Request: fold
Amino acid sequence: MPSNYDTEKSEYAGKDPVYENRQVMQTTSGERVIIMNYLKGFGLYVVMNIDRPGTVSPAYKIHPDKLMKIE
Reply:
């Protein structure tokens, strides 16, 4: 789980999402996450880490620039 949460509006606030819900992405810190929602008013994604079996991470908000597609 990231050490800090993005809570401020991003420059993407009010714009449509680039990525779709349930898309698996990678963060710039190397975590694999799944997109749960997009908060259009903030321009932030709500994601959850893809954990090992038997563990569950809480959802958190992340800036779109911190997400990248998995090749």
